## 1
Amino acid sequence: METVMVRGLNYRYHPGGPLVLKDISFQVAGGEMVAVTGLSGCGKSTLCFCISGAARHNRDGVMSGDVLLNGKDTRELRAAELALEVGMVFQDPETQLFSPTVEDEIAFAPENLCLPTAQIRERVDHALDLLGIAALREANPYKLSGGEKHLVALAAVLALDPPVLLLDEVMSQLDRAGKKRVAAALQRLRDMGKAVIAVEHNLEAVSFADRLLVMEKGTLLCDEPTASFLADRVFLNTRGLL
Amino acid sequence: MKLDPRAKMVMALCLSGLALVYNSPLHLLLLLAVTVALLLSFRFELSAIGSYLKPFLSLMLFLFLIQCLFSPSGRVLLAVGTLPLVTTGGLLTGAGVVLRIVVVTAAAMLLATFSSRDFILGLVQWKVPYELAFMVFIALRFLPVFRDELVNVVTAVQLRGVDLKKVPWGQKIAMYSRLLFPVIYGAMLKAQRLAVSMESRGFRVYPRRTYLRRLNFRFVDYMVMLVFPVITIMLIVLQVS
């Protein structure tokens, strides 16, 4: 069974409005990483919102088609229950961070899962180590740089230990070292059997992904292994992706 | 001195309660001295009280003048004809009102001597529902964000060449009411995104939750929580009788 299955997904932000996603279908298995790319406004973030279930917060939104996570229809799960299936790091870290310290921020998710204290500490330590931000443990997330905030937001989601991980342009504000750390962490998570979907403009940052999905005006243009895709310079050039 | 946040909350409540009961400037000055001493023992920067009081200075001055003018008693210090303007009683009442505001603000600063995390933990361990404690915490956390957003919008207007000092008050009020809309809309958007982010991290997935830390009362905390309310009640009874 595929970990993520998207079937004939259509989405518009309000009834009668333009289709932002048009008949999107793809699958992602556990232990696989897929990068989603495309020009601004092509629907990448909306796709993330639909998979994570966050789209339901837009009461006017109209969604059709299926999004299945480990065989469960996202429409049948409560918002909080979805958190057990998928973890999402949003584009803007500002609105994801609210705790007084980085440690508290990361502990928030395992605390919600009612884990014993020792296990919460273990998850916090693991997330901090995985992203190399242990030195920020007692820092105030609100006073960190943009890149550091992204790393903390990612660590906070990793502590949830979801089988599916969605990242919406997490690398965009990171410096070279930060990108390297996140890339290493994502590869490790993939090796641990997680399904990773990373939306990214910068193709170089996700060159280690197994497959690359290119979106254009709400449609899925192609779904190919990353290596063969990146080798096709002509295609990348014509689509404005280089 | 290290104390449990709950003990500090009790202290703040007792001191604020006494400040509301006392009228005499002497009593209020003594209360202020105790509050300042406590703040110093918790290594609190006293200059912060000044910055918190700064926005209320004009209000305090206004209240002081009102009390001076409308609570005449004692010796007349200044009069217009037969109408007493400044009296010793009026001055004392005005000073009392101002001191009361200062004491309540200083007592509230006791809550700033521990982290907001401990504030939530303290309330939750006092059996306050987590959602309620978290709601209070989020409101406090986002107040400065809301203020920053308002400052940003006003700065953006000024950068477009509007000199607010030269705009007449009538137009200024109309302009501020128009500026309020994007600020409120932005705050609502932020709140919605925050809610999505919290839910996506399992907020309220189960009816209860666990915590990384726990607050533990020590002997000194029990003593503070016993002694402060007892003394406060005694002083209130003495004052009322």
## 2
Amino acid sequence: MAKVPGTKGLNLDESLIFERSRKGRTGFSLPVEDQDLREISTSHVPAPLERKDGLDFLPSVSEVDVVRHFTRLSSWNYGVDSGMYPLGSCTMKYNPKISEAAARRPGFANLHPLAPESLSQGALQLMYELQQFLAEIGGFAAVTLQPAAGAHGELTGIKMVRAFHLDVHGRPRKKVIIPDTAHGTNPASSALNGYEVVEISSGDDGVLHAEQVREAMDEEVAALMLTNPNTLGLFEEHIAEIAGIVHEKGGLLYCDGANMNALLGKARPGDMGVDVLQFNLHKTFSTPHGGGGPGSGPVGVGKVLEPYLPVPVVTHKGDRYHLDNDRPKSVGKMRSFFGNFGVMVRAYTYLLEMGPAGLTRAAELAVLNANYVKSRLEKYYHLPYKKICMHECVLSDKMQKANGVKTIDIAKRLIDLGFHPPTIYFPLVVDGAMMIEPTETESLESLESFVSAMKQIAKEAKTDPGIVKSAPHNTRLSRLDETLAARNPVLTWSKHD
Amino acid sequence: MRYLPHTTQDISIMLHELGFEGIEDLFAGIPHSLMLQRDLHLPGPMSEPELNRHLENLEKANPAASCISFLGAGAYSHAVPAAVDAIVSRSEFSTAYTPYQPEVSQGTLQSIFEFQTVTAGLLGMDVANASMYDGASAAAEAVLMAKRVRRNITRIVLSAGLLPEVGRTIETYVSALDLEIIEAPLSGEGILDLGALSAALDKDTALVVQTPNFLGCIEDMRSLAGLAGEKNAFFISFTAEPYSLAVLEPPGSFGVDVATAEGQAFGNPVSFGGPYLGLFATSKKYVRRMPGRLVGLTRDGAGKQGFVLTLATREQHIRRARATSNICSNEGLCALASLVHLCCLGPEGLARAARISRANAEYLKAGIAEIPGFSIPYKASTFNEFVVETPVPANDLVQESTRHGILPGVPLNRLKNGNENRLLICTSELHTRQDLDNLIRVLKQRGA
Amino acid sequence: MNIPEDLKYSRTHEWVRIENDEIAVVGITDHAQEQLGDVVYLGFEDEEGLTIEEGTEIVKGRQFGVVESSKTLAELYAPVGGEVVEVNHTLTNNLETINDDPYEDGWMVKIRVSDPGDLDDLMNAAEYKQFLEEEAH
């Protein structure tokens, strides 16, 4: 059995930064103020609007304090660079260091978004090419890079759907159909656009069937939103037929591109009848998740939706790149400027390094890794859908429940053994779900080590369930009391707490 | 391929376990007709040296990045301590995701809690969230929240002093709601016309005000607060340049319902427009109605202090179609950069940087006003950004100045259609006296 | 599972006790609190977010509140229609009572029943028990 990396390590305690504060300590190095200038400045302050609290909510600390504080905090985190992070649907693959260096290049980082276009051609070229690359990968006519995250991309996509119906049919229509396996952002994005959400169930085989769609589909449906591969890790094999049914009634097909990693170079949503899809650059194109962001959620669209893209779109004429704001049918703007450029630079760098064959290989190995883990674990954990999976597989705690061990316990015990847990209790259609997405950047040894950890837990669930139910044991803190946090929310620090 | 660790032998071991002959068997679930029958038409692969050369060439095509810049208008450059990048480069922070598993995410969680504390303090509010996509989307989310808190709201009054991008984002966000959007005009002084505003407000309105506004002028928040209170309008503030909060009374002291801001200037590079972060703060009574992630204090099984994501029932993964917002993340690393930046600066450093920025602007204003043909059209007080009336189209001035390695400002008509002879100039503590004098000299060459 | 014999039950897991022939005392069942887990929030509000208070006329089947645990939430629906005569505000600061004592101190609202016919639609203890068994499958 392969060795698991989990062990007890050196753990340093650390208080809040505010508790390190000592009056008189500083962590900055700024020019000394010019006294003449200071007088000019203060003479113009409207006195009643002047701040008087002395900014006393900020700590007074040295640079040493700051660096030590945050370095200690960082040691309490688990990242992709720490080890395998099989968080399903989040595609926690390795984030190349060259992409980090690329985004920090001064020619990108110091470029102001309102600098003259003629002096920002390099950045515009990069954006233009990234639009083209994504359009090619997804099989789309056009792409906007503006959305800041996947959910933001969904919101943008559904706005375009709405603008299309208003423009073509004179009304936005009323409903969006969403399968029960969908991410929670899908119904939320639809509702924010004023749509009533109609939930339909997937079949017993875990995928959506044409009959269900046909039954729910009418001329009040603006769009059907599906995820492909879906959150069970299964390819929606009837997608082409479903697209036909939706289109026949004048609706549009939205595809949540969260799971695009499985399809790179193998199949393209645009070729399957998808009208609009959001990419997640922080998943598929390997930009770091940053503890929750920044991400980037470009949206690809077919010809019919192109006029409604948010402004600006980067265009190319002759040897010049240009920000096109003159788009009368555009939905408008989803945020300031053009999107998370720093994230685009990272994804662009990744795409160029991988090349077309490398990307296809990434998809293949992601699928191979997921199937391998599934195959190695199906004797020990209940596998609700017994078929070939794509980039992730879903197991459940059904076999362990008999001994009182639940998914949450298995997740916490994995931490002890040195792994980040999978996505748990999602998708909702599987009771006690564990959604495992190893990604292509995990080696066979690393998968074997994970399998060993999962097998050990399955064994412990029978022989020593207590150790699983009380995990984690090796972390600085044991399980945290979420009820206490929610009953009396303390969301900021104050001296008296 | 350096990111794909599989050897040929590994692959055959794995396929053997699965009982398959080749990897293509794993894609049998995709109907053949839907498979791509050709290679993707993409460039690459490139080696690291080739890629670096290519990126260098792209950088060179961005000469604006190395100019002395007086550009602001929603994206601000300030002095950032090197410690900030050293911390955000730590991959324990950058390669982690949303802290769903608190026991292995305390670094992210505690830093967000500290960020919330600092943000609430800056804006003078009770509570702040873990950050939003950017300032514009934060302002738009505030308007959506206004509508949730007060169902009776039928009209959104946007100050004409809002950065046009922010106004446009709000309009886009609320486009599916049945809301009337009107613009409250500015007076000749460059700040909101109180008479016109008064006529636009009532209990069924939400008001969004930016201060300093996009012309750089500091709004009379006291009077605006009085008016919003008297008319019982839902009051939302937006701050584009957060350094202004170091010298101006925070929005919370004027009783705003929601305070929003663009947080980029704290520790994040201008980076051609993103990633940035939105600051979002409100009062305690609205905490269950606010969008975005929240981190709260709690204890572990042994009673030790720790942090968790909390009040999650507001969010999409539980409430789905009835969530307060569809947002399911924050701008984590940008928020961390802001926090580290603000901790390094501390109260003294932040105040000093803000004072120097403002003093530099006053120095420039006085110098430019003396150049024949140039004038300062708005009389209201400003912070570090102000408008100049130019004798020639501002765009021409920009083109000429860049030859001297200076970006003198943003032509106002790039932000909003209108007078082409107006330039928006912004300064910070990064500018030396020589930079300021150089700008004045370059503009003088075009003086009448 | 505690299902007191003397109460009436709704299909949405509220219980009703009739006092003085016309006042319906309403709370959530033992089963409901167990499904939720530790309650972290109780809000007396309708679907629109409007406050439910003494004097509010409530329609049978409409939302009178929302109860949340750290992981999930449930709407509370009025099992009978009528005027709300009392709201158990002490619960708001003693949320554990909803978990610990759902049938006594954990009561939530008292409603003056406007149509006694509403009560006929509710289940008795045996019927509710059977309903729970069916729901489990």
## 3
Amino acid sequence: MNIRTLFRAAIVAVAMVATPSAVFAANLPCRTAKLIVPWKPGGGTDVIFRIFANAINGYGVKPEIQVVNVSGQGGNKGAKEAKRSDADGCTLFAIHQSAVTSYLNGRVDFTWDAFDTVALLTSTPDIVGASKTAPYDSLEEMLNAGRKNPETILTGATFGSTSQFMWLLMEDKTGAKFKYVPFDGTRERMTALLSGTIQLGTINVASGKKYINTGELKAYAIAADERSDQVPDLPTLKELGVDMTYTLDRGIMAPKGTPKEAIDHWASVFKRALEDPSVQKQMKTKGTGLRFLGPEEYAAWFKRIYDDHEKVAVKIGMYKK
Amino acid sequence: MIWENVLLAINELATVKTAMLMVLGVACGLIAGAIPGFTIAMAIVLTLPFTFGMDAAQGLATMVSVYIGGLSGGLMAGILTGIPGTPSSVATTFDGFPMARNGQPGLALGIGVWSSFCGGIISAILLMTLAPQLARIGLEFQPWDYFALVMFALTITASLAGDHLVKGLIAGALGLLVATIGEDDINGVARFNFGSDALLQGFDFIAVLIGLFAFSQLLSDVQDRETATKSLAETKSVRIKIEHGKAVLVLMKRWTNVIRSALIGVFTGILPGAGGSVANILAYDQAKKASKNPEQFGTGTPDGIIAPETSNNATEGGSLMTMMALGIPGDVVTAVMLGALLIHDVIPSPSFIRDEPQLAYAIFIAFFLANFIMLALQSFTLKIFVLVTKVRMYMLASVILAYTAIGVFSLNNVQFDLWTLFWFGIVGFTMRQLGFPLAPMIIGVVLGRNAELNLSRAFAVTTDLTPFFTRPWSLFFIILGLFSTFFPLYQKQRGKRPWTLVYPSLLSICLSVPMFMMGGAVRPVLGALLVALGAYFLIQHHREGWKLDPRASEAHELQAE
């Protein structure tokens, strides 16, 4: 009657039927490795990594991957749990820029370098979105209003989280100032934008596409290097003269001190999934870009991201060096 | 047009594979819902990877089945063991468990099953006909309105406390206090953690709920040798058969309760973030207030089972409406379903039903069918489940506790939740012994975070307090909350004091004000009807010369004895 065992058995059965073609073998001391996702089931990060885990378990890789949600404290609860875990290659940790922002806003006392980097996998650009009721028709109008009446435009973002850093960077680049109302999580922000509780907020391609097309939400720009082919009419911030990008980049890390073979094993496994056409198709429909960086490049990338964020955080007085 | 879509959708679903998946889904949901602590959300998340390989309609049909199975599974555990399987069936235990202990588990379960079915079907019909219009209501709610709604829900504490008003209020306040422990959701400020990293995480409210209700119940069940060797139905002969016929008759006699609870369920479901855990308590409270014999609530009255079970199944329809029509999930369950839709490149929006009629109607039909499958499966599984009441308490308690612990651990996969379960079990046990009601505390824990979050948002927008009174929905719930606070007093003094004569008229006239403020076509008409109703009562009292009728309340007291 144990439902978990039943489910697990079913997962194993499906995996065995699927493809036992090339079986990787890494000497890890476990039958199942856990991939800690520090956010709620059904959220952006969760769905992305469940797609990866599903594909990888289909290759017959041992140990298998089991997604484990440890949600709470804006991702920090899961991060602490991952940091505490044994560094034996049996625990992986899915993360994005929040590893940096949570340290800078003082909610945790460790940042990305408390982990070993495995691989960067996806990149989801933020869209500068606005409610239908917002009285600005372009980015320029909105920024002018933000400069003329600083700290009056209601913007959905939780203080010191990734949802606020896009706006902080924009304030830094343009001189506009916004007023923040705590709405963390893309879905909550979407609801608040649709109901007109807030006027500005970041959204992403997957959840916002339809509303942008029907005109129920306004979108001023996409914070990426290039336009998205899902919303080709939306200009990039750079095209509009604001020299910045802001993407949410998700990757895999492991507890500090994980053996090199284990890290290389997981990096190659995730790389294979990334090159899998079915995974690529699912990510594309979600509007998520794919971008692979191996363990060393990923560490260098995190270093750069950290420096960028630290500069902003020091400037606004959130973080003191 | 509708029928064409319905037929197309049936065509889509009418394959052996889909039917089997749905039956399997309902069965898994039933089992998951019956295990305390193992939430429906968890069951749906576990289903998610399987749906990657199915087509969209099939995948969603499976998920809907698990969802419905899960909601209905909670009632088996709730009625037979007094432990709510899910937060959505907390109120079911108030009367379901006493009824089962009074030797009528068959009837209690029958009423539960048929109430679930009715709630599901009523909301399915509303879902099919009114989804886009009703879903819009969800968007009218802003932080002020949510806060007022939660405040209204908190006034229920007073009526749930019954005779021990002060103890009930203490328990409620204690619940609110527990909800503040840990990092706050807005700025991440640490509160009441005393430097401990574990307390900084805060208590998971489901772990608290299971601890307070389940663990403490199990502890009281085995407090001495004598009670420990008893079984749940030791004293009276148990009829293992589920009394379907009798249950249906009971329901038909109380059809107003069924309809009212279903509407409460659908309405709460539509609001993002409210959901079944609020709906079942609201519906129970309204049933108690509307009842002629409120004293019987808590002792095993059929109305006390009908209200929560109808409403929690009706919330599914409501949250599916918002999810499909607006792409806004009302709870974790619909959030996961939305995730599944996005993977298939289906993005819900107000035009979703027009753009993808086949898929939309497939969800409607699956919802409808799953209710029938649930009814069939539940009649069957309940027969096995009733046997639980024959097991000796010490064995039953250990097995339930083991499953409960597994369920609680799987919520967040952290050990700390198990300690939460343990300590709150002891807190709950102590409170029971001292005569504190536990329900108000649960309400405080469940709603505290929600109230705080929305209040902070309201204040982040403006520190001005007037929006609480100028926004129609907010005003609506503030008025309801005020009247609800005085309701226990009204019930006691009805007919004895002059003010009680104007209470109903005043309520309906006051409520018409926000209805007029909302504008549109339908709502001012409703407002006008409320005014007319209020005026009618007043005129009637005037004709009778404002005569007091002490019999009205005495009648109660006699019945109670």
